Structure formats: C-alpha cells, structure tokens
## 1
Amino acid sequence: MRSRDTLRARAGRWLARWAILLGSAIGLAHAPAAATAASAPSGKAEPPRPNIVLILSDDMGFSDLGCYGGEIETPQLDRLAAGGLRFTEFYNTARCCPTRASLLTGLYPHQAAVGHMMEDKRLDGYRGDLSRQAVTLAEVLHAAGYATYAAGKWHVTRSVKQPTGNWPLERGFERYYGIITGSANYFRPNTLTRDNAPITIDTDPEYRPKDYYLTDAISDQAVRYVNEHRQRKATAPLFLYVAYTAAHWPMQAPAGQIAKYRGRYDAGYGPVRQARYERLKRLGLIRPGWKLSPQAGDWDRVERKDWEARCMEVYAAMVDRMDQGIGRIVEALRAGGQLDNTLLFYLQDNGGCAEEVGRAKPKEAKKQLPMPGPEDTWIAYGRGWANVSNTPFREYKHWVHEGGIATPLVVHWPAGVKRRGELEHQPGHLIDVMATCVDVSGAAYPAQLNGHAIRPMEGWSLVPAFQGKTISREALCWEHEGNRAIRVGRWKLVAKGPAGKWELYDVDQDRTELHDLAGSDSDRVRSMAGQWEGWARRTSTLPWPWNPPYGEPLAKKKKTKKAG
Ligand SMILES: [Ca+2]
C-alpha cells in the first residue's frame, strides 16, 4: 500500500530533481501558466513519464460496452480491455457536474464546490463553479511539464458565454475544443468553444466537415491534438482529456449508424437484460450469486414498440460511434509510437439516465412524437432502456445505489500495466485518478496555488492495483440530491432522498442491493451513518440545500384547495 505521505515524498523527490534540471525553483505554489514545459529528465535511471489520456463518456450504464457484457459493438474499447485492466467495482458520483469536478480535482465534488449542478445554492459545497481551493489534473500536470489538451464537455462552471475564471484554458489546459454546457444538439451544438473563443460549426475556421456530428468532432479534435503534440512538443509528455457527450440525451446519430442497429431491440427490455446478466456472469464481472434486479418497464404495455426500440437503436449507434472515435485516437498514438507509454483511462460519469426528456405524456401526445435520431428531435431513451444499461443493478443517474454510481474503468498502459485482459475487483473512485496521475508523472500536488490553500487530494494511487496489490482505504462516500451512501469494505449503507431511511447491503453477497439488512444490524447502521455524517461535515456536503435539512423529519405537505 502506498500512503499519501509516501506519494508526497516521491513527488518531492521529483520536484527537487526538476528544479535543478530547469535551473529555476518550481515551488509548490507555482502557477501553471508560468511553468516551463520540460522534457523528461535526461541521463540515467528514471523511465520516461507516460502520456496520460483520460476518456470520459456521458450517461452510460455499467453493462453497455461489449467488454462489460453489453451487446453494443465496441471493438475498440474491447481491444483496450483485452490489452489492459478492467475494474469491476469502480465508482463515479451519479451526475455530470459532480463527477467532472471530482475527476478533475481528486476531491469529493462538494469540496470542489460542485455538490450539485451549475447553480449557486449559497452553501460552500454547492456554489456551482469549480473551487479555487481545488486544482485540476491539467494544472498539476502542466506545472510538471505536461502539455495539456481537452476535447469535449466541460460542465464545471456557471459561465457558459464567456471565460470568467473556470474555463478549460483558465484551469490548466493549453488547448480546448468542446461545449461548456452539459448537453447539446449533436448536429449543431450550442456553447461550442475553441480555446477561449465561442464559435459555431459555421464560424469555426479550423474544422469544417461535410456532415458535422459532435462525437466525431470531439474524436477528430483529440486526434489533431495527438498529432500536433507529436509535431511540436515531442519531448514533453501529453495529458489529453476527452469528455464525450455520448450517450447523453438527445438520442441523435447519423442515419447510417442507426441503421446498423435496426431491429436489434425489437424483443424489448427483458431479453436484452437477461443476456447482459448472463454475459456479465460468464465474463466474471459480477458474482454468480448476485441476483438480477427487478425490471423497470413492461414491454407488453409499450404502445409504440417501434418508437421505443428506435430509442435504444439510436443510443447504441451513439456509443458505437464514440467507440470508433476512441479507435482513431488510439491509432494516432500508435502511429506516433506513443501508445506503449500512454496511460489511458476510460470511464463513465454516471449510470444510465431515466430522465423522461422529450418522452411526451399523455399517450395521445406520444403518438405524435417523431422517431428519435435526426437533428430536429430531442428525446431521451427512457427508464426501461436505462434499466437495461444499468444491468444488473438498481436505480439510475442521480441515485447512489449501484445503478447510479457503478462505472466501467478500463486502464490500458502497455509499458506500465502488465496485467493483460484481467479484472480488478478492488473498489475505486474518481478521486483516485488524481492520485494516480501524480504518482506516475512525479508531479507535485500543491499545498497552495495562486494564493489559495489547496485541499489535500482524497484518493489513492491505483498503481498498486495495476500491479495486483491491495489498496487499503477506510471508506468511500457519496451524496447527490440527498441520496447518500458510504461503503466500508463489503458493507454499503445507502439511502434515497434527504428523508430516506438507510438501507444496509453486504456488497460481497448482494451487490445488486436486493436484501436490506438494516433491520437486523442496527449497530452497524448507526456506526456507518455516523461515519458518513463525519465525512459529510468535513467535505462541505453538510449543510445541504435539500428539504428536509439533514436529520430532520420531512415536513407534511399542506393541502391546498384549487380555486374553482
Ligand atoms: Ca452524465
């Protein structure tokens, strides 16, 4: 096990070496903008530092990828998994903004002031704009000499029209292409931005494809960054953050791509879930004793089955298209001789999304809805398919039951991870990505930056796990919209909503959270609830903006008589 102190000591040794090499004192409080890009120390001993490519997708479930039991065709990610390591119990934080804030900073989301979305709720943990008491991966790695690039969705700032302190170039990235906000039309995205300049697909001088599609644009831009980096800065390692909006609603994809999946979901939710469940067991991704959670939708009662099936056809097409793009990024690294020493992470920001966006009610209105897919539609794939995406788990994006927070993590690094095609069953969390990047890069995690004291990182380096060793940690905790959870070893305490009762599960026996043990083990419930509350107060999760305030009973709603 590698302690934080050991990590810091190691980072300190790197720093001292670098300060000498650069002939200038790089202090712990060094501003990244002023840092000098440095090549890896020449001479003896230290192997070259790896490139780091961090790929995040949006609103996808645990079992969507082929290498996680899904039927969607993802040969590129499957190949990375076969040549690398798949984590089976890795976690995000159940929603777009908090996950991005946590992933980028190595803190719990509330510590980065993004406990909820992009609105200021006037509480420390809920300001809706990335805290200056947090540093981003790009700030840390850039200060250590990495060239830093981002392509895709940003979504950690309230300011979507102009840079006011928390746009990518203001948080450590040298180059950026993507959308500042959380969702967009895939054929004509809003808040499209190049570096610090708002653009549109018609005004962008650098990228004018015949048929614009946001997923392709993010992939193409990432490939450009890899190639430009090789041409211009070959001596510095690269940090590339690729944040796809696939497969967040709206369900939109090129018609030809959707056609590939035509008819594949005609049998409805149940058979797809069952097939995924069996594959998950066969692949060893879940234990045979974990029962499949209940199905969310009844296919027999779906009136427009062709429309409902099309939702999933488009979703699959969106994921497939992203996978193709990831293949192009990997190929660019390979062609430049960079792939062997690139540490690539792939993960997802929250579970499958049950939000009923664009899925009209009542039934009469639903009959009028167009088939999803084209530019002029704005439709989510709905609860039934989200439940399929999250097979075998319960719940969805927003909730902190396993369906909301379980994510694949594929790690591929031929020079650094010798476990090929293996599964890693230790739990891990987004907060570990910062600690891992600091570990492998030798970067210094700063105590202060630009006059702000920086909160210590919360995670643990995953490098021991890469080597098959155990990481011992006390607990992992979650909160989103009053949904709460803590995991300590095999035990998970979880609740729905700010007034919800705690449920207790033995994750080793029952990761699908079907047998609540809270009634029979009240001592453990009390103890873990106390531990969660201690975490929540320490991380600015409490006080929270939800009703009721933590620990208070839900006020009864007053009945109001309608006029007339
Ligand atoms: Ca999301």
## 2
Amino acid sequence: MEKPVAGNYGTVNPVYGAAAMSTAPSAPPASMFDTVPGYEGTLAGGGGGYLPPPMPTVPMPMPEAPSQPDWQIPSLSEDRAQAAFRTYVSRKCCYSSAPVDEGVTTSMETFNTYRYRLETFTESRTSEWSNEPYTAQTVDAGVQPAPGPWQIATKPPTFFQDQKQTIKVPYTSSVKNCHTCLGMGRRPCTTCAGSGNKLCSWCKGTGLRQTNDRCMHCTGSGRENCSSCRGQGNCECATCRGKRQLLVYINVNVKWTTEKDNFVAQQSSGLTEQSLESVTGKQLFQDTQYMLYPVLGFPDVSVAKASDRFLKKHQAKYAQTSRVLQQRQTIELIPITKVNYMWKGKSYVYFVYGNECEVNAEDYPATCCCCSVM
Ligand SMILES: [Zn+2]
Ligand SMILES: [Zn+2]
Ligand SMILES: [Zn+2]
C-alpha cells in the first residue's frame, strides 16, 4: 500500500493546507456547544465549577442530642509498659538491652488524651462538555429538556467511602464536525510534516554510499518513505478516530468525598501531638447521623468545643458546594504512660502510647553511633 517515493519529495499534501498543519490537538471552539438550560457555563475538559445543589424542598430533620455516655478511662500496668519497652529496644538494630534489663522503674504517670474526629460525607457534582467519535450513537439533544444536574440518578453511595461516577446527561447529545481535522478524518503526519518522506537514514540524504556508489536503500534519491504514515503524509485523526464527526454531549461528574477534621486535646506529658498521629486509641464514643449535634457533657471541655467548632465549619464549608449525606463523630481515648527509670545512677524516661503500645525513648542511654544518625 506504500505510495512510491519518487515525485513526492518535500511537498506538503495539498489537501491538508498550512491552516490544518498545527500539530497540537486544539481545544474545541465554544461555538461547537449548544446552550443547555441548567448547564450554562459548562466547559470542555472540566473546570466549569461546581453545580450547587438546589435548596431542599422538605425541612431538614433536626439533629438529636444523644444521651450522655458513661466515660471510662483505663490505665496501663508496669508489666505491659516494660514489655512494650523491651520490644521497642529489640527492634532497634544496635541498642543494648542493658537499660531494659537493669533499669529500675521509679515512677509511672498517666497523661491520657482524647482525639475528636469529625467526618462529613459529601456529594458534589460538576459538568463538562465531552465528545467521542460518532459511530451512530443515539442523538437526542432537544428531544426534551435535559434533566437538571441534581435530578440525575446515581448509584447509591456507600457512606464514608470515596467514589466517583460519570454520567452522560440525557438529551444533550448532538453530532458535530470534528474540530481537530475539520471533518476530514485525517491529519497531516507530524513526523514528516505531511510530505510522506524523510531523509534516507542510510546515506543521510546524500544518495551515495561511503564508496561513492549509489545508495541502495533510497536508490540514490536521498529520501525514504516516512514510517509513521507509511508514506501517505497523513494519519488518522486521533480525536474522531477517522470518523470525521463527533458525538458531543454533557457529562456530569459525581464525586463522593469524606471530609475529615481531627482535634487532639492538649496534654502535658512532653510527647508531641505528631507522635500520636500514628496510633489509634480506645473508641469511647461514636455517633453517625445525617446531621450531628455537638458532643455534650464530655469531661474535657476542649473536646466539646472542637465538636461545636468543626460542625459549624463543615456546615459553612461543604453545604454550599456539595450535598452533605452523612456525618460521623468519634472520640478516642489515646493512652499515654510516661515511665521514669534509673540506670547506672542516672534517670531516664520513655513513653508508651496508643492501642499499639508505641514507644518513644529519645534519651535511651545505650544506643550506638550508627543509630543516632538515623
Ligand atoms: Zn539513501
Ligand atoms: Zn509521515
Ligand atoms: Zn477528526
């Protein structure tokens, strides 16, 4: 099927004039898109902004105040603290276990703290113009008014699981000429700039071999067929895949997201709040509802305040651009035990914290140089 090279050197395929020569697939012009009520401002490639949910037609249910739970606070035994400390030291490549074996615990203090977490599960919707090669799909634009972005049914989401769904909006599909190839189905080849040939790779265009004989590869012409377009000078248009026309329609992108906020109550153990991020605590309380009421009567006032603050913040931040589907608030008790011990006449300290019995022992006295670098 290869076109002979002779007589076609360096010419630009006349069908694809200079205007069609730009190689980058251009964005579709705005004139390509119809105006669809309820989808004004929709752009190709997204970026058209969020579609705010309509005001609810039924009154929102009022959040209910939960009954006050019985707050129980556990504490760690010396044996468990020691066992955690031993495991921690044994995992360090060259810590000596002498301080664990010989050290004497002098005191244990409990600095338990609370972590409050608010999760708000939201649904947001955006619209964008999209297109695909036209292969006789249903064309339904204008047959009847398109449903509004929030009238389109989705699959039922699983609460607190981030998911996405893209839905083609009914009654928005129309057929347009492909904007990339101007309806031709083919585009000038970018490798040979539409000429169908390129410099001979054997003789580098001289037409001669090193021995000054004629180059056998290009029979002396100095050029050979372009392999990208097999000498044709043009390739199938990638936008319409050669179909010349596009089905143009609006997509609604539905996104379910869990928005989270954490608050850790202050404690004076000396352990940083950062250390606590890696551990879990004992769950003291959890409440899941469509809309939550702030935590009441919790022993630590700062937790109740955080609950109130986060609920207001989430309402202000997410209710405008998305629909709140569910909220969940959790209070964990994170156990922190500070252990003071003596070894070789000096006092040291380590912390055991979280359900995982994580250990922090920054002043451990029997490390070696290679570990202190880490
Ligand atoms: Zn050659
Ligand atoms: Zn080519
Ligand atoms: Zn095209």
